[in-house]
């Protein structure tokens, strides 16, 4: 009963921090966006009177502090505003339409990255300082050294144009997901490999592993039932960062492969100075990542009951 009470207080504290984080993010985003030079309605072909009417319609002719209070008031009502460039479309409707695409790509990439990264890490630890360890760590280093903006075009050229194995753009068909998911997940594979390797090497030296081996358990059973199980606990804490990495990486990947997800819209909104869309997508991403980190904290506590929440 006492532990449940402590957990409830812990969750309330974390939720409070999450709400405060989103509020600070929304405030910073609002004022930073206002510092971007340019005017979303500046167009030599459109009369100045029409441009003034457009600014007045969206409230951009008011003082910045007044715009801020209006925006925050609307945000409290879950109103992210209306896009300046996508005429008649609310930011919420754009998110509702494109987020499933980004989520699908992100989940596939995350599943690929976690499975391959954990497998590579386990193999590296079992063959420490031998050729499989060096080979897999080389793959991990290459994964970190080659960012998405480099790896994506390279794969598009070799697999799409040169060998014509996979389509270079588009979305919907299974073969169209392979390249972007691989590119998006590669950097996470690299980080997960190193993290899992270090965690496994730390676990191998523990007394309970020596005890398990002394009982006559097979090496495979020791690895699966004792080493991996305990090595995963610290690795779970990195999942929040990995989710963030994959989501942020999707900005570039979706633009490279012309995927109609949130990342592509985010890049487009910056180039067109679509203020409500920039702020709405930033706040949505921030709230999503804060929520994911909160879930990771809860899962971490459930996986290892020795952890005391404070």
Secondary-structure topology with pairs:
Elements: H1 2-34, H2 48-57, H3 64-76, H4 91-126, H5 131-145, H6 148-162, H7 174-204, H8 207-214, H9 219-236, H10 239-256, H11 262-271, H12 275-303
Short description:
By secondary structure, the chain is mostly helical. It has twelve helices and no strands.
What is the mean predicted local confidence, pLDDT? 79
Low-confidence stretches: none
Share of residues in strands: under 5%
Give me the secondary-structure category: mainly alpha
The biggest sheet amounts to: none
Q: Helical segment tally?
A: 12
The first-to-last residue Cα distance is 16 Å
Tertiary shape: flat
Number-wise, the strands total 0
Order of helices and strands: HHHHHHHHHHHH
Radius of gyration: 24 Å
Can you give the helix content as a percent range?
over 70%
What does this structure look like?
The chain is flat, with a radius of gyration of 24 Å. The chain has helices at residues 2-34, 48-57, 64-76, 91-126, 131-145, 148-162, 174-204, 207-214, 219-236, 239-256, 262-271, 275-303. The mean pLDDT is 79. Helix 1 runs antiparallel to helix 12 (275-303) and helix 4 (91-126) packs across helix 10 (239-256). It has 310 residues and is mostly helical.
């Amino acid at each position: 009963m006492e532990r449940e009470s402590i957990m409830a207080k812990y969750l309330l504290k974390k939720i409070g921090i999450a709400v405060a984080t989103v509020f600070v993010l929304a405030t910073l985003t609002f004022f930073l966006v206002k510092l971007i030079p340019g005017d979303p309605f500046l167009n030599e072909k459109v009369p100045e009177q029409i441009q003034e009417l457009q600014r007045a319609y969206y409230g951009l002719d008011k003082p910045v502090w007044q715009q801020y209070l209006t925006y925050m008031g609307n945000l409290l009502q879950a109103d992210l505003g209306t896009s300046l460039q996508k005429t008649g479309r609310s930011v919420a409707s754009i998110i509702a339409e494109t987020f499933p695409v980004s989520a699908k790509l992100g989940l596939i990439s995350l599943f690929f990255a976690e499975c391959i990264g954990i497998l590579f890490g386990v193999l590296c630890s079992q063959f420490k300082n031998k050729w499989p360890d060096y080979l897999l760590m080389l793959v991990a280093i290459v994964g970190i050294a080659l960012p998405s903006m480099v790896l994506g075009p390279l794969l598009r050229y070799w697999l799409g144009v040169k060998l014509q194995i996979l389509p270079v753009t588009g979305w919907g068909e299974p073969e169209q997901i392979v390249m972007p998911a691989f590119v998006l997940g590669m950097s996470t594979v690299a980080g997960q490999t190193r993290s899992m390797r270090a965690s496994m090497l730390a676990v191998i030296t523990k007394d309970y592993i020596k005890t398990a081996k002394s009982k006559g358990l097979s090496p495979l059973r020791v690895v699966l039932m004792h080493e991996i199980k305990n090595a995963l606990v610290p690795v779970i804490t990195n999942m929040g960062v990995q989710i963030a990495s994959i989501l942020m990486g999707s900005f570039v990947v979706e633009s490279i492969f012309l995927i109609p997800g949130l990342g592509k819209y985010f890049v487009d909104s910056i180039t067109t100075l679509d203020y409500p869309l920039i702020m709405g997508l930033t706040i949505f991403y921030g709230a999503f990542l804060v929520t994911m980190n909160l879930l990771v904290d809860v899962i971490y506590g459930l996986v290892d009951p020795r952890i005391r929440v404070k």
